[in-house]
Amino acid sequence: MPEGICRNYNFCKLWGLTKTFYYLCNIKEKIHIHTKLRNKKKMKTVYEFSVKDRKGKDVSLKEYANEVLLIVNTATKCGFTPQYEELEKLYEQYHAQGFEILDFPCNQFGQQAPGTDESIHDFCKLNYGTEFPRFKKVKVNGEDADPLFKFLKESKGFAGWDETHPIYPILEKMLSEADPHYKEKPDIKWNFTKFLINKKGQVVARFEPTEKISNIAKQIEELLAL
C-alpha cells in the first residue's frame, strides 16, 4: 500500500476509534446524570417515607400532604424538655390552619429519653398537655438512624447555635471536646432539633435546639401564608 494511503488509513482508523471512545464516554455521562436526577427526584420529599407510631403501626407521611410540618427529635429528661410547652402552643395556634408537629423521641443524647413509648407519651400528656402526634422512639444518627432522619440531615446540615441561649456554652464545650469539627457535619447535635417542611413535603429549614420558638413561628406563618 502506498505510503500516503497507509497514513490516511491509519489516521482514519485512529479517528474512528477516538470518535467511538468519546461516544461511549458521552453515553456513560448521560447515564450518570440521568441516574442522579432520578434518585434526586425519587427522594426529594418526606412523603417518600413511612414511620411507626408509638404503637408500632406503619404511618405513611403522605397522610400529611399539603400541610406544614415541624419534625422534632425529643427527650423527656433534657434541659430543652420544657420546649414541649412552647411546641404545644405552636400546635394550638396553627393546627387549624394546616400545621402539624411530628414528635420522635430519641435516646441517643445523654440517654435522656428512657422508658417505653407509652410512658414517654404519658409523661408528655401529663406534664405538658401535648396533643400533637408522637411516634415510636428512633435513632437519628449513625448507621441505624431512621431513614427519614437520614434524609432530613442530608437536606439541611447544621444550622448554627443561638449563642445567647444559656445552654449553649455547655453544648459547645461538650461537643467540641468530643469532635473539634462537629459543626462541619450534618449529624443532629442534640435533643429538640427541628426540621420545617413545606406543603410540598420539601425540607425548607433546620433549627438547632437553641433557636427561639418565636423565630420558628414566623417561618411557619410564611409557609401557611397567614
CATH level-3 fold name of the largest domain? Glutaredoxin
Q: What structural category do the secondary elements indicate? A: alpha+beta
- Number of H/I helices: 6
Domain unit count? 2
The level of helicity is 40-55%
Keywords: Oxidoreductase, Peroxidase
Active site: 78
Protein name: Glutathione peroxidase
GO molecular function: peroxidase activity
Précis, in short:
By secondary structure, the protein is an alpha+beta fold.
Structure write-up:
Helix content is 42%, strand content 13%. The chain is α+β, with helices and mostly antiparallel strands and 226 residues long. The chain folds into two domains: 9-40; 46-225, Glutaredoxin. The strands form two sheets. It has a four-stranded mixed beta sheet, covered by helices on one side. The chain has a two-stranded antiparallel sheet with strand order 1-2. It holds the Pfam family GSHPx. InterPro entries: Glutathione_peroxidase, GPX_CS, Thioredoxin-like_sf.
Write the topology of this structure.
Blueprint: H1 3-42, E1 50-52, E2 58-60, E3 68-74, H2 83-94, E4 99-105, H3 117-128, H4 147-155, H5 168-178, E5 194-197, E6 203-207, H6 213-224
Parallel strand pairs: 3-4
Antiparallel strand pairs: 1-2, 3-5, 5-6
Family: Belongs to the glutathione peroxidase family.
Keywords: Oxidoreductase, Peroxidase
GO biological process, one term: cellular response to oxidative stress
